[in-house]
Design a protein that fits this description.
Helices cover 42% and strands 21% of the residues. By secondary structure, it is α/β, with parallel strands linked by helices. It has a single domain, classed as Response regulator (Rossmann fold, 3-Layer(aba) Sandwich). It has a five-stranded parallel β-sheet, sandwiched between helices.
C-alpha cells in the first residue's frame, strides 16, 4: 500500500513536480492538496485516519503552514507531518518542531532528504496496514 499523502502547497508548479517526484521515487499516493490553511485543516480533520503523511509549506495563499501544524498536534499515532519550505532557517525549523512537525526540509536543497524520509516511512510498518 502506498504512503497516503496530502500536500499543502499553493504553488501549482511546485506541487505538481513534488507529487510527480514522490509518486515515482517514494511510493506515495497523493490524496489531494490545499492552497490555504483553512482548506488544509478542514481536509485533514475530516479525513483523520485515512492519511499517513502531510507535507506542508509555510507560506500559503491564506494563513500559514504553522497553523496547519498546530491543528495537527492531536493527530492519530503513526500520522506524520513534515514541512517543506524555502524558509527553513534554524529558528523556523525549531518553531516547526515545537508545533509538532516530524521533520523540516528546505525546498532548495533537501528534496532528496524528503524522498528518503518518505521511502523510510513507506518501508516502516504502519498502524492498520
Amino acid at each position: 500500500m502506498d504512503l497516503r499523502t496530502y500536500i499543502v502547497e499553493d504553488n501549482a508548479t511546485i506541487r505538481e513536480n513534488l507529487i510527480g517526484t514522490l509518486e515515482e521515487l517514494a511510493s506515495i499516493e497523493a490524496l489531494g492538496w490545499a492552497e490555504t490553511e483553512n482548506e488544509a485543516k478542514s481536509w485533514l480533520a475530516q479525513h483523520e485516519g485515512r492519511w499517513d503523511l502531510a507535507i506542508v509549506d509555510l507560506f500559503l495563499k491564506q494563513g500559514s503552514g504553522l497553523g496547519v501544524l498546530e491543528a495537527c498536534r492531536g493527530r492519530a499515532t503513526g500520522r506524520r507531518v513534515v514541512v517543506l519550505s524555502n524558509y527553513a532557517t534554524a529558528d523556523m525549523r525549531k518553531r516547526c518542531l515545537q508545533l509538532g512537525a516530524d521533520a523540516v526540509f528546505d525546498k532548495s536543497n533537501e528534496i532528496d532528504a524528503l524522498v528518503e524520509y518518505c521511502i523510510q516511512l513507506y518501508e516502516a510498518p504502519r498502524p492498520g496496514a
